[in-house]
Amino acid sequence: MQLDHYTTNFNTKVFPIILVCDNVSNASNIGSLFRIADAFGVEKVIFCGHTIPLGRKMTKTSRATEKVVKYEVAKNSVELIKKLKNKDYQCIALEITQDSVPINTFRFSAQKPIVLVIGNEKFGVSEYVLKQCNHVVHINMFGQNSSMNVVQATNIALYEITKQLQQPQ
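Request: output the structure for the sequence above.
Response:
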């Protein structure tokens, strides 16, 4: 028998993860990010940028999870990352760069809370933000394409992070 929202027996858990969205601007993507933040027990989502569409189109995709996931909006990603690093967060960008490491080989530490930085749908995480991060990880891909949708990539990253955080350190 298939289970529904009322009959699942998942344990509710909040992980020390803040998802920072560096200029993610598509309403459907933002709605989907709320859903996965809820699904993976993300502590908070912070949307950075000047145009964050939090209207009807976003809520259609979010399925009301924006009402249960803590979130805020900040203008400047670089300043936000600096502030979080000063509060002893480990800041990790999800981006393909010359120096990024495969996410499945990176060991996420449960000793400090995590900031996962994701980027704009077209341009990714900005160079200025990448320079502020402690680490940069990427998802290995095996086809012709060199990128994937920001929501799909975030799903994979949060799965890997929460999987590791649940293992004995």
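Helices lie at 27-39, 56-62, 77-86, 127-132, 150-165.
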